[in-house]
Amino acid sequence: MTAITVRAPAKVNVGLSVGPLRDDGYHDLVNVFHAVSLFDEVTAAPADRLQVRVEAAPGSPVPVADVPVDDRNLAVRAARLVAARLGVEPRVALRVRKAIPVAGGMAGGSADAAAALLACARLWDDGGRLDLMELAAELGSDVPFALMGGTAVGLGRGERLTPLPTGGTFHWVFAMAHGGLSTPAVYAECDRLRAGRRVPPPEASDELAAALAAGSAKDLAAALHNDLQPAALSLRPDLRRTLDAGRDLGALGALVSGSGPTCAFLAESDRHAADLAAALAERGVAASTLRATGPAPGATVL
Ligand SMILES: C[C@](O)(CO)[C@H](O)COP(=O)(O)OP(=O)(O)OC[C@H]1O[C@@H](n2ccc(N)nc2=O)[C@H](O)[C@@H]1O
Ligand SMILES: Nc1ncnc2c1ncn2[C@@H]1O[C@H](COP(=O)(O)OP(=O)(O)OP(=O)(O)O)[C@@H](O)[C@H]1O
């Protein structure tokens, strides 16, 4: 048995419609996920016992000191789940190399979970017995999409996925913030801001689907929507300055990525994205900037 390395992508939610709070503490969503070319890598190697090491990918500005290296780590939880389902001991050393911002709203932990699921299933030769999508949904609402990649709409908690056609490549700039935001805290703030109002069921956007299918960055920019953005801005008012700076500097569209605090900007071309990233860095409105294209593939064995 040799080591297996799997990479899995970050996501930006190009449309996130949040319905009322459910009895189980989750919200029904119409969640349009778009995978982008920022990848975490998980290597699984045979070992005496379960171990995990987390490091920044070479050259990546992502701080990793806050990532837990115990059973709270989503890659560890994924490895334990695969072992339990196969009835084997989780004798594996995991190395997680992060290029996706931590607690940034880009599903970095979910990417690691998806990568670890696939790596461990291969390492322990599950022979295709396991339904990795089902295991993914147990680990978190964003994990199935990290396995699938591309562009997809997620219903329910966001785990019931249908791929969406995209007609081209989109160019993105991401402004990383100092510190992170807790996803449950952002959903709770969303509920607080909407208290006393009737919250309609989450809605799909035909404009968004058409823009993606056409590969039109301009139309996609006009259709970008995130119901969690007011909550993220309420918890982190400084993000408004970041979004305004991006628009001011010529981004086609700007929004908070998922639960934030990373802000996402849509550019016209690779060149435009490079200029925008440099200009955002110069304005000092981001801890650092990252560039990526989408759609990107889901979890892949290297
Ligand atoms: C904000 C998004 O990243 C958008 O894709 C996701 O909805 C969050 O997905 P995730 O981080 O995988 O979230 P989970 O680990 O499943 O849930 C964490 C917490 O987020 C809240 N949560 C999550 C998903 C959902 N549809 N409704 C929720 O209210 C719940 O408080 C839940 O306890
Ligand atoms: N492998 C992991 N990488 C990063 N964080 C992890 C990991 N495992 C567990 N965590 C914990 O999960 C929290 C959220 O991390 P993550 O980077 O997935 O956030 P996120 O990108 O905002 O998530 P999402 O967009 O799915 O809501 C972190 O603060 C950390 O404590």
TrEMBL record:
Top EC class of this enzyme? transferase
| This protein's record includes keyword Transferase | yes
- Binding-site list for ATP: 101-111
What Enzyme Commission number(s) apply to this enzyme? 2.7.1.148
Q: Which pathway is it part of?
A: Isoprenoid biosynthesis; isopentenyl diphosphate biosynthesis via DXP pathway; isopentenyl diphosphate from 1-deoxy-D-xylulose 5-phosphate: step 3/6
Q: Does the keyword Kinase apply?
A: yes
- Residue ranges of every copy of the GHMP kinase N-terminal domain listed in the record: 73-150
Q: Where is the GHMP kinase C-terminal domain?
A: 209-285
BP terms from Gene Ontology: isopentenyl diphosphate biosynthetic process, methylerythritol 4-phosphate pathway; terpenoid biosynthetic process
Q: Which chain regions cross the lipid bilayer? A: none
Q: Name one GO molecular function term.
A: 4-(cytidine 5'-diphospho)-2-C-methyl-D-erythritol kinase activity
Q: Where is the active site?
A: 11, 142
Can you state which reaction this protein catalyses?
A: 4-CDP-2-C-methyl-D-erythritol + ATP = 4-CDP-2-C-methyl-D-erythritol 2-phosphate + ADP + H(+)
Keyword annotations for this protein? ATP-binding, Isoprene biosynthesis, Kinase, Nucleotide-binding, Transferase
Q: Which InterPro entries match?
A: GHMP_kinase_C_dom (IPR013750), GHMP_kinase_C_sf (IPR036554), GHMP_kinase_N_dom (IPR006204), IspE (IPR004424), Ribosomal_Su5_D2-typ_SF (IPR020568), Ribsml_uS5_D2-typ_fold_subgr (IPR014721)
Q: Which NCBIfam families match?
A: ispE (TIGR00154), PRK03188.1 (NF002870)
Q: What does this protein do?
A: Catalyzes the phosphorylation of the position 2 hydroxy group of 4-diphosphocytidyl-2C-methyl-D-erythritol.
Family statement drawn from the similarity comment of this UniProt entry? Belongs to the GHMP kinase family. IspE subfamily.
Protein name in the entry = 4-diphosphocytidyl-2-C-methyl-D-erythritol kinase
